[in-house]
Description:
four-stranded parallel beta sheet
Amino acid sequence: MSDYEDMWRELGLDLPRHDELLKTLGSAHKDIIASQPNRPKAMTYFDEAVAVAHCKRIKELIDGKAKGKKVIGTFCIYVPEEIALAAGVTPVALCGGTQFSIPYAESMFPRDICPLIKSTLGLGLGKMCPYLPVINMAVGETTCDGKKKTWEILAGMVPTYVMEVPQKKDEIDRELWLKEVVLFKDKMEELSGGKVTLESLKQGVRIINRKREALSKLHSFRKESILPISGKDTLVVTQVALVDDPERFAKNVENLDKELENRVIRKVGVFPQGAKRIMIAGCPMVMPNWKLHHLVETSGGAVVCDETCTGFRYYANLVEENAANLNELLENIADRYLQISCSCFTPNQERIDKVMNLAKEYHVNGVIQYILQYCHGYNIEAIKLEHALKEAGIPVLKLETDYSEEDVGPLKLRVEAFLE
Ligand code: BJ8
């Protein structure tokens, strides 16, 4: 790690604090992820990707910039990666999943906002995020209230552009979203100084479709009765998807998929027979937030499906690549993204329907609704979702939590009781 000290110093990081953060992340990965028995060999790549997220990957981005590439930081899976790539811009997700940085945000931010927002901002304010000084621009979006207002603070730290994401899905909203997608393309062209052409956009679509396809296949192995991979490992892979080079990432997921295919044939599983099959539905879990998966998978359960933005909502649906011209392809992109059913939309019956379908497809024994504290959208939507699940006879539990370890004891008791 010390090889990168000069780079971190030049980026303006607080080295002792950053070191402490890396130690915390390293030991969490060792205890929670690396310690699992019988992991697929192809997970080595993703373990390594976690380990180099603050060093080698940053160096790679800096080297790319030296060759003229631009980098944007994103916070939501509504920001179309395909368009950024087509313009020669590399997108990386900047969301924080660590409790470590939260006190640095609480010195400025109200305490009663969601931990994802506080952790993200805390990494920047505490000078522990190597991505923030590297990006040329942050791209926020108008989803939840907490995020919307955060962009105004973030704009004081780094140039910030905000995409308007509609809150409904009527015709007028679709028109607005398409315009936003076109404006984003214009912004990316302005940033890179290049032109997005039909061919470059098709190439961007191909790269991201390949990534989503590989992920979709990976997650589909969790439909098996003998599970060849744990929920924790699939979560790690999906978290890495948000920061890694997309082509290299897709290739490595394809390798993992091959290994899992083989495991399925040989009936190699990673859980004891009879482990309860659990779906997690709700808020995203960004690196290194493995808290709930760890609780479930150390209490006799197996997480077999994630209806989150670090799961199904990220990889579901591909962009239709066939298009006669640039506008048509931009429309296809807008259509694909508008299928993401975030709780920021109202009404959001399609999310309820998707959860019900996933529950059947993955043969789940129960659903845990995962709500990050103060995330009002998912918290209130939990009422309708719980009703639908109960009506279908699917046991459901709602857990509201943050990134701290303080509530692990009571949470474990509730998870154990639910699994019984
Ligand atoms: S599409 S879920 S990534 S907005 S920050 S909403 S947890 S209070 S992240 Fe999201 Fe895009 Fe939607 Fe997905 Fe709640 Fe926290 Fe807001 Fe959050």
